[in-house]
Design brief:
This protein has 80 residues and is mostly helical. 55% of the residues lie in helices and 0% in strands. The chain has helices at residues 14-34, 52-74. The longest helix is centred in the last third of the chain and has 23 residues, at 52-74. It is elongated, with a radius of gyration of 21 Å.
Length: 80
């Protein structure tokens, strides 16, 4: 009976999960880059929310991270 038992197969290969974790990390870095820039006093406007890092760089990094995660999902598995 033990010979008929087989190990459960995962949906993805090990490399797919590694690429997925890299993509999630890149997305998290993008959201960290987006943070900050606010003012301590709500009556004073701070122009730091409109700098290059928060307007251009961070959203681009997040989109790259989403691209990496989508690639990890669609990457074909090796035939065994």
């Amino acid at each position: 009976m033990k010979n008929n038992e087989h190990k459960p197969e995962f949906l993805f290969d090990k490399i797919n999960y590694k690429i997925l974790l890299i993509g999630i990390t890149v997305i998290a870095i993008g959201f960290i880059l987006m943070s900050g820039g606010g003012s301590d006093d709500p009556k004073i406007f701070n122009d730091a929310i409109f700098n290059f890092r928060r307007i251009r760089l961070a959203p681009t990094v997040v989109l790259i991270g989403f691209g990496i995660t989508i690639y990890s999902i669609f990457k074909s598995q090796k035939s065994k």
